[in-house]
Amino acid sequence: MIPTLEGQFLIAMPNMEDNRFEHSVIYICSHTEQGAMGLVLNQIATHLNIEDLFHQLNIINGDSAIRLPPQIRQMNIHKGGPVEMERGFVLHTDDYVIDRSTLEIQNGICLTATLEILKAMAEGRGPQQALLALGYSGWAPGQLEAEIQANGWLTGPADQSIVFDPDAGGLWHKALLSMGVDPAMLFGDAGHA
């Protein structure tokens, strides 16, 4: 049995070879012997806003768009990763759970990938805090472990306040500092914290 990274941060090291993940902070949602799955927390999909997405999914129409809760209207859509980029995922607090649809991860953080949660959010009935991502980051069995061994990633405990922090631009630094790592001290061949 491999030690699980579920519920942990995966932070891209400065020598990250895959430019899609440069300065990325990923929240690991699942990590088993079959592989790993996570969502990038600090890449915004600037080509799409939440109101347009809700219209495309027929969650709202012209009238209901006016009644969208302010915190939902201001919500960014994130690029969760390069896999299945048309598929949506909501990372959220555990105050909203859908039976047989919500994956409870750790420390009050859950993952739901249904239209039902988006409808609840549009109506103001959803979770207190949420992050909506299109696509996800995935690794085959042993792939993530090999990338960590090659110093591509730093792993550490996830902080809920950072997971749901709306300042995507400052997340990489905040995540490192939350683990006691000074970003200025990182070099391409640094070790693990």
From TrEMBL:
Pfam families cross-referenced by the UniProt entry: DUF179
Question: Superkingdom of this entry's organism?
Answer: Bacteria
- Cite the InterPro entries for this sequence: AlgH-like (IPR003774)
What family is this? Belongs to the UPF0301 (AlgH) family.
Query: What HAMAP family does this protein map onto?
Result: UPF0301 (MF_00758)
Query: Any idea what this protein is called?
Result: UPF0301 protein IG616_15800
